[in-house]
Each structure stands twice: as C-alpha cells, then as structure tokens.
Amino acid sequence: MQDQPVATTKEKPSRKAHDAHVDLIAVVVAMTDQGPGILTVGQPNTALPSGPFELGHRSLQFGLRAWVEQQTGHQLGYIEQLYTFADRDRLGEQRQQRVISISYLALTRVEHSAASRKPAWRSWYDYFPWEDHRSGAPAVVGDILQPRLLAWAEGAAHVPVRRERRQRAAIAFGFDGRDWNEELVLQRYELLYEAALVEEATRSEQSASLPIAGTSMIADHRRILATGIARLRSKIKYRPVVFELMPPVFTLLQLQRTVEALSGRLLHKPNFRRLIEQHELVEETGETTADTVGRPAKLFRFRHAVLDERVVAGTKLPLSRA
Fold first, then answer.
1. Which of 139, 287, 293, 316 places its Cα 20 to 30 Å from the Cα of 203?
2. Do 180 and 137 form a contact (C-beta atoms < 8 A)?
C-alpha cells in the first residue's frame, strides 16, 4: 500500500510584537556665533535629539517636535523629512529588534530656545573639520586624510580595487587637481568610515591605531548629520531655506556670510548680490544699521511672496556660489 501524501503548509515567519523599533532623530541647524550650529544632547558622547515614535504621537512630526522640546527646551519651526535609516547592521551590534530611524532636517534660530534652558549648540565643523574651505583647503585634508586615504587605497589586494579607491578619494576630496564639491558630505564621511579613519569605524576594536578625524557621535548619528548637511548645502542653491536661519532683518553681507558658512565656500560678492536682486528675494526695510565698518548698511527682509511666485512660475531659486 502506497503512503498517502501528507498535506504541508508553507511555514510562515514568526512575528513578534516588537520586531521593529522606530526612532525619530532631528538634525537641528541654527546660525550661532561659531557658524552653523547643531543642537546636541548628552555628554561626553554627543548625540542628536531623538526619541521613539509612540502610539500617543498623532504624527511623526508631532513626535519629533515633542522629543526635541522635552530634551532641549527648543521649539522647532521649519522641518522636512530627511531619510529613513533601516540597515540591519547599521548600529554595529546584534539586536533582537530592527531599529528604524526616521530623520528630519530642522532649521531654526537660537533665540527660539526656552529662557530656562540652555541647549548645547556645537559647530558642525567640529564633526567634519575637512568641510570648511572658506580659507582654502583645511590642513587636515592634505596633512592627514590624503596620505592615509592613499595608503588605504594602496593596501587593497587587487589592482582594480586600488584604482577604484584612489578615484573615489580623488572625487570626494578634490585630489589630483579636481574641484571640491561641497555637496559630497555623506560620500566623504562614508569613505573615511570605510578606511577606518573615523572613530565610529573602530569602536569594535580595543583601540584605534591612528589618530581619528573629527569629533565622534553615538551610533550612526554622525552619518545622519552628514546627510542633513549635504541636503542643506544642496537646497540653499534652489530654495530660499536660508532665510529660516536669518533674523527678521539683516544686511546683505550678513546673508552672504551665512550662505558661505553653510556651504563652506566663499562667494563672489558682486555676483552674489546680483543673484539676490535678479530673483527679488529680499526687499529694503528703509532702515540702516551702524553695526558695520564704514558707512551704515541697509537692512533687508525676506520677500515671502517669492515662494508663491516661484511655485507658480515653476522656476528655481539659485543661491549657488558664483
């Protein structure tokens, strides 16, 4: 007698109640006396403001705003979603839960903080000292990063890999006479991570064998910060988001210095002012300020009507370097 076939069912993957954990992380940018500042929490290992998305939060943005205000006393204004980080091994350790981090870019002003709280603002160039080219290429690029990146490239076992690494380093950091692209913030950080030249890449080892570039952050928060800086550097060239960081009234020189600080590049003054005038981004207030060297400077404010005008026209707002 033949055996009767046994009915089988495809085993379904088990589902646990808490397979995934959702974090909300904020890259909060403001202009400080030291330049572009990042709102941080925690000492001595700094982190970006963050917290879990909870059932009581009516939206992701609501949850993010609540966590930032609770942790720093700072109320957020402009927010846009940045990126969702969900790689299985992104936190460098085995976990029972998959951690999904939804990041946001927030632009604000320092004075929006509660009077009773003093948020910790840190210059973003503390974390990425190779990104500030306003006075030329930083010494850390030529003295430290270039020789170590080239040594890392030459350490590859195969010729095609060595060639590919050298090319990536040249494109990212402007080696071999290439132009510096201020928007490649994330690519530069990820290259340094791959070459084990940042602390985050060496945490699983007993100690790093070489000095480390830039101030580290917990988990992959510096990677998230790099993503936010890259987004902002790109966006200030075609949308007037820079005015979210400006005071209500300002001089044209203050506006130019802000754009330069964000991009890490100097601008050609006459060409920059010509761009501002051609696209009617600002209007005079009729007042002047004596807080400048020489004759009083005119004060301006942002023309909010330009937002509706540009949306209708379908054109971009060029605030790029000349």
1. 139
2. yes
Q: What percent of the chain has pLDDT over 70?
A: 81
The alpha helices in 34-179, defined as continuous H runs, are: 60-72, 124-127, 139-140, 146-154, 159-173
List of domains in the chain? 20-125 (3.90.79.10), 129-213 (no CATH), 240-313 (1.10.10.10)
Select the more confidently predicted residue: 311 or 120: 120
Q: What separation in angstroms does the CA of 146 have from each of 77, 175, 176, 215?
A: 39, 8, 11, 19
Parallel, antiparallel, or unpaired for β 78-85 and 297-302?
A: unpaired
Pairing of strands 98-107, 50-52: unpaired
Model confidence at 197: pLDDT above 70: yes
| pLDDT tens figures, 259-315 | 999 999 999 999 999 989 888 899 999 999 877 677 889 999 999 888 776 655 555
| 159 CB burial (10 A radius; 0-12, 13-18, 19+) | exposed
Helix, coil or strand: residue 175: coil
**pLDDT score of 5:** 46
Question: Could you tell me which of 138, 238, 128 has the C-alpha nearest to residue 186?
Answer: 128
Among 238, 248, 224, CA closest to 307 = 238
Torsion angle (degrees, nearest 10) of CA 114, 116, 120, 123 = 60
CA–CA dist 64, 52 (Å, integer): 9
